[in-house]
């Protein structure tokens, strides 16, 4: 691949005798960034098929030339090979800029190597080959490939990543460098990303990547679309998949058109549908999914500058298990005791209430320019529109009116400067401004779950990366974020007084209605975050990484304003206007050993979070639906620590064994109880057979063993049946027992010609049709997890 | 030092980019919502008052009223009250009332919402410790499945006793059964579940 090069002609010696073939060309090869000469470049004079090399000053000469065109191909270690056309008019001199350390500059590359975005954070990159196996699933499912990442599920299609025990607002997700703003605080709100639009996904544990945000107490997920190839080409792929469980199918196609000049265009679309899933012993009625996604982008990308226009749209209609319908605590208790879903209808593709319908638009404009002897400047504007409709089972025709109708619009502008003149002392700084508007439609006929609000954010950050020597790299960063939330919220008078807001917040009432107050809470938060880390190569086989990160997260709208019924959990949830931000101090260390046969990566962390916000039961009231538990968000001090392991052993050329394990503990230090929803210990072992010459055949058998979580907070409660005076315990706390699953997968690739091939993948998930429940599934009280699922996927690359 | 054609092209691109950015921010700032503040939600399916009025078929002045009041609706605290006592051996017609008193005049939830969608509802009654027997009247409205909804019922008071009376409104039961007139269901969700304690037959 070649760059269009800016060739600076310093001197042109014009000669009189045009047919005289005795001119000399002198070239000087210099580093683009700082203009220093680069010695030892190999110069292939293509038009004459001669070779020469640059001297210690980067200079080379070619003698006995005629006037005319000369094509040079210049290569240098660590640089991208470059082709230059030179017009010889007499003796000629040219400076040729070479691009050094492409990978470090995140430049385009033909081979998709999977580049990390951080140096000293605990980062894992999932490449396309891995992601395509999850084409019929979701981002959250794919991320579980990384030890230490689990997922918080609501059913099987709403899958939120948990990074080292933390999720939702504590995880920041970037889609093509746009921070996703999609009501991510909700545990039932899946990230609005179509996995089929991703070419690479990178997971960063902890908040090390400060350029992306300072509030990633759990971690950062960076989703990137395909890289831009600079060559005249048209290529694409089409993937068709089917699965037995849910009778689902997925169709996705990507088409790329690229030009040598740097212009590029890409169009990608995906359609996914499934009906009701089934567990091994019952149907999961109303668990269908209907998903449509489209992404398109175009722009120009050269080494020196470029721009990109990007747009993506995702529309997900997601059925929620019918058996989760709960009106009173008695309903919940019956569901828990029966052990079977109350609704067990025959298979159907129909999606009824309760369901979600979420549409997410993301548009982005991005421009960058690289300045010689300076670095790269990037400007970006992005707009997101998230429309969330949630339908409940309501009376009669009202079920077609959503119970939740939220429109969240976000505008962000970003300026980023990357100083890379000195590749050993890189500096990156930038500024971000964001405006967000949330609109809760009152037409629902249901009190707003979260209020109308406007939010303003300004962020400033600076990070630096120092290569001290060839064995040691250090990085550090600081960030400041200002957040203002300006909400308009209705409070019932009774709630206003019960919360004690009449004492503390009397001045924010802007309108008085017969039964409620309209209030205007305006809160400002100043957040500081910082990180420092180092990576040391012990020898050529192993390195260690140490990192400390300070991050702070302001309370999200639900933690501040929640005031209503959480249907499937049969409880009221209450926020608190008095909350401050939570502050995390996280220390992590990694050890990596890579030898020819054995590879191991061990990651440990300790995360102390001050003022950690979480939901806890605190009261019980008598209502028209009988007794009802009240849960409220509370702040406490929490501690989490864990260890993640990933080991691979290559037994022979064909056989490979891999183990991934994760262990984590989380405690509420103030009350000395375990934190809720902490993933239990889990370990997966995989044995894989590959035979490259048999059409790149591979087959693998995976054992997934998830232990029972025996550390959990006891939030069980006594249910007083007033009719007969009996008290019973509603067990909402005890995690389900351990389970062991087997998965099988095999694939092969059949070439048609040099550029086109067909990849066939067959997978069997839950091979033994084991019936089990997952502690981290919010609907675990109501049904088992999915039974056996056979998937077949054909991918045609052209 | 010099600007070549490529550079000027990119300058144009960047200008275009800045203009686009600017105009976009204009568009969006225009579409901003007004400052009048959001409208309050007119809550539907909200029930604040559930009243069971038992009238003695032989003596219209013999009335027992079981009332549950939740000023904030189903999401708020409710209080129960009992007025009067049943007369042993008498037969009573039950008049049911579900209203939303937050609206003026009060919204009749039973007749406006529940009865029009009677096929997806079912009332279940239960008693404990008190000698009350119930029958669903022949003019009762058809409920979920092949049942009588339970809005028109007749109650017969037995021997003097004191106990509890429960009323449950089930929405979309999987299976409703009124072979025992108190009624029973599987599945569905409870829209109401109210127990009155200390109801007396004298």
Question: How does this model look, in words?
Answer:
The complex is a heterodimer of chains A (798) and B (202). Chain A is mostly beta strands. Helices cover 4% and strands 56% of the residues of chain A. In chain A, the strands form seven sheets. Chain A has a 22-stranded antiparallel barrel. In chain A, strand 19 (277-278) and strand 20 form a beta hairpin. The longest helix of chain A has 10 residues, at 329-338. Chain A is globular, with a radius of gyration of 29 Å. Mean pLDDT of chain A is 90; it is low at 1-18 and 101-114. In chain B, a hairpin with a 6-residue loop joins strand 10 and strand 11 (184-186).
Task: Give the helix/strand layout.
The complex is a heterodimer of chains A (798) and B (202).
Chain A lengths: L7 E5 L10 E9 L10 E4 L4 E4 L5 E7 L2 E8 L6 E7 L3 E7 L23 E5 L1 H4 L7 H5 L5 E6 L3 E6 L7 E5 L2 E2 L20 E6 L13 E6 L8 E11 L4 E11 L4 E12 L2 E2 L4 E2 L4 E13 L3 E15 L9 H10 L16 E17 L3 E17 L12 E16 L5 E16 L11 E18 L2 E21 H6 L2 H4 L4 E4 L3 E4 L2 E16 L4 E12 L3 H5 L1 E4 L4 E4 L7 E13 L3 E26 L2 E25 L4 E14 L4 E2 L7 E10 L5 E10 L10 E5 L4 E5 L8 E13 L5 E9 L23 E9 L1
Parallel strand pairs in A: 2-8, 12-15, 34-37
Antiparallel strand pairs in A: 1-8, 2-5, 3-4, 3-6, 6-7, 9-14, 10-11, 12-13, 14-15, 16-17, 16-46, 17-18, 18-21, 19-20, 21-22, 22-23, 23-24, 24-25, 25-26, 26-27, 27-28, 28-30, 28-31, 29-30, 31-32, 32-35, 33-34, 35-36, 36-37, 37-38, 38-39, 38-40, 40-41, 41-44, 42-43, 44-45, 45-46
Chain B lengths: L4 H26 L18 E8 L6 E7 L9 E5 L7 E10 L6 E2 H6 L6 E8 L3 E5 L16 E5 L3 E11 L3 E3 L6 E3 L2 E13 L1
Antiparallel strand pairs in B: 1-2, 1-4, 2-3, 4-5, 4-8, 6-9, 7-8, 9-12, 10-11
């Amino acid at each position: 691949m070649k760059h269009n090069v800016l060739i600076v002609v310093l001197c042109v010696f014009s000669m009189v005798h045009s047919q005289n073939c005795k001119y000399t060309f002198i070239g000087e090869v210099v580093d683009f960034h700082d203009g220093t000469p680069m010695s030892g470049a190999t110069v292939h004079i293509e038009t004459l098929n001669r070779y020469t090399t640059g001297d210690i000053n980067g200079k080379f000469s070619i003698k006995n030339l005629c006037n005319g065109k000369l094509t040079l191909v210049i290569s240098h270690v660590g640089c991208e090979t470059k082709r230059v056309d030179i017009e010889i008019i007499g003796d000629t001199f040219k400076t040729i800029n070479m691009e050094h350390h492409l990978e470090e500059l995140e430049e385009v590359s033909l081979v998709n190597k999977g580049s990390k975005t951080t140096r000293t954070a605990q980062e894992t990159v999932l490449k396309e080959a891995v992601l395509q196996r999850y084409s019929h699933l979701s981002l959250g499912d794919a991320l579980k490939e990384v030890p230490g990442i689990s997922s918080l599920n609501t059913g099987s299609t709403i899958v939120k990543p948990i990074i080292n025990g933390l999720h939702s607002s504590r995880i920041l997700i970037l889609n093509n460098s746009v921070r996703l703003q999609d009501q991510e605080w909700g545990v039932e709100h899946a990230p609005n990303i179509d996995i089929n639009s991703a070419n690479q996904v990178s997971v960063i544990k902890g908040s090390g990547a400060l350029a992306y945000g300072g509030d990633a107490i759990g971690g950062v997920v960076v989703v990137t679309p395909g890289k831009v190839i600079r060559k005249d080409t048209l290529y694409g792929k089409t993937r068709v998949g089917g699965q037995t469980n849910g009778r689902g199918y997925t169709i996705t196609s990507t088409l790329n058109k690229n030009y040598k000049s740097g212009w590029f265009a890409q169009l990608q679309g995906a359609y996914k549908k499934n009906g009701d899933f089934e567990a091994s012993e019952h149907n999961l009625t109303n668990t269908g999914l209907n998903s449509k996604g489209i992404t398109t982008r175009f722009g120009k990308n050269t080494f020196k500058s470029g721009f990109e226009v990007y747009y993506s749209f995702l529309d997900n209609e997601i059925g929620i298990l019918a058996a989760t319908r709960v009106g009173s605590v008695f309903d919940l208790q019956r569901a828990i005791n029966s052990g079977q879903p109350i609704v067990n209808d025959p298979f159907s593709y129909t999606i009824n209430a309760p369901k979600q319908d979420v549409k997410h638009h993301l548009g982005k404009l991005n421009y960058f320019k690289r300045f010689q002897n300076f670095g790269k400047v990037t400007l970006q504007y992005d707009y997101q529109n998230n429309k969330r409709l949630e339908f409940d089972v309501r009376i009669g025709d009202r079920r077609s009116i959503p119970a939740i109708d939220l429109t969240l619009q976000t505008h962000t502008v970003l300026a980023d400067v990357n100083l890379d003149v000195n590749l050993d002392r890189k500096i990156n700084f930038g500024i971000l401004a964001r405006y967000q508007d949330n609109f809760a439609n009152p037409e629902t006929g249901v009190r707003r779950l979260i209020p109308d609000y406007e939010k303003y954010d300004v962020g400033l950050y600076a990070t630096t990366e120092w290569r001290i020597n060839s064995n040691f790299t250090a990085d550090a960063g600081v960030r400041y974020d200002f957040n203002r939330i300006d909400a308009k919220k209705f409070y019932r008078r009774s709630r206003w007084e019960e919360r004690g807001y009449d004492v503390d917040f009397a001045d924010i009432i802007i309108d008085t209605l017969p039964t409620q107050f309209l209030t205007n809470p305006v809160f400002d938060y100043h957040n500081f975050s910082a990180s420092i880390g180092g990576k040391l190569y012990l020898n050529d086989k192993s390195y260690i990484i140490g990192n400390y990160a300070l991050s702070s997260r302001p309370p999200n709208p639900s933690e501040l304003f929640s005031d209503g019924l959480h249907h499937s959990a049969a409880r009221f949830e209450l926020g608190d206007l008095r909350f401050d931000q939570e502050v995390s101090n996280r220390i992590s260390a990694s050890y990596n050993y890579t030898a020819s046969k054995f590879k191991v990566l061990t990651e440990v962390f300790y995360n102390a979070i001050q003022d950690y916000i979480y939901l806890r039961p605190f009261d019980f009231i008598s209502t028209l639906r009988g007794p009802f538990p009240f849960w409220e968000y509370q702040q406490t001090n929490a501690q989490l620590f864990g260890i993640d392991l990933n080991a691979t052993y290559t037994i022979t050329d064909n056989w490979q064994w891999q183990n991934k394990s994760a262990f984590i503990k989380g405690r509420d230090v103030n009350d000395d109880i375990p934190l809720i929803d902490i993933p239990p210990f889990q370990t997966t072992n995989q044995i894989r057979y590959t035979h490259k010459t048999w059409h790149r055949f591979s087959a693998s058998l995976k054992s997934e063993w998830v232990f029972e979580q025996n550390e959990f907070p006891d939030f069980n409660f006594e249910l007083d049946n007033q009719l007969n005076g009996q008290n019973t315990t509603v067990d909402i706390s005890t995690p389900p027992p351990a389970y062991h699953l087997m998965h099988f997968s095999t694939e092969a690739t059949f070439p048609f010609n040099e550029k086109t091939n067909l990849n066939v993948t067959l997978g069997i998930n839950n091979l033994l049709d084991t019936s089990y429940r997952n502690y981290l599934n919010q609907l675990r009280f109501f049904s088992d997890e999915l039974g056996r699922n056979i998937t077949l996927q054909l991918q045609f690359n052209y | 030092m010099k600007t070549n054609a490529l550079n000027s092209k990119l300058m144009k691109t960047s200008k275009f980019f800045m203009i686009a950015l600017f105009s976009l921010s204009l568009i969006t700032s225009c579409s901003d919502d007004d400052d009048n503040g959001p409208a309050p939600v007119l809550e539907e399916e909200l029930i604040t008052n559930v009243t069971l009025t038992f009238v003695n078929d032989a003596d219209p002045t013999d009335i027992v009223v079981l009332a549950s009041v939740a000023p904030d609706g189903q999401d708020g605290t409710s209080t129960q009250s009992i007025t009067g006592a049943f007369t042993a051996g008498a037969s009573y017609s039950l008049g049911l009332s579900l209203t939303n008193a937050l609206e003026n005049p009060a919204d009749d939830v039973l007749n406006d919402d529940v009865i029009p969608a009677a096929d997806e509802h079912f009332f279940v009654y239960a008693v404990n410790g008190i000698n009350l027997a119930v029958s669903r009247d022949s003019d009762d409205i058809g409920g979920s499945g092949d049942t009588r909804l339970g809005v028109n019922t007749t109650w017969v008071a037995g021997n003097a006793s004191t106990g509890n009376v429960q009323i449950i409104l089930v929405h979309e039961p999987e299976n409703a059964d009124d072979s025992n007139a108190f009624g029973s269901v599987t599945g569905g969700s409870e829209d109401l579940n109210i127990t009155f304690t200390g109801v007396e037959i004298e």
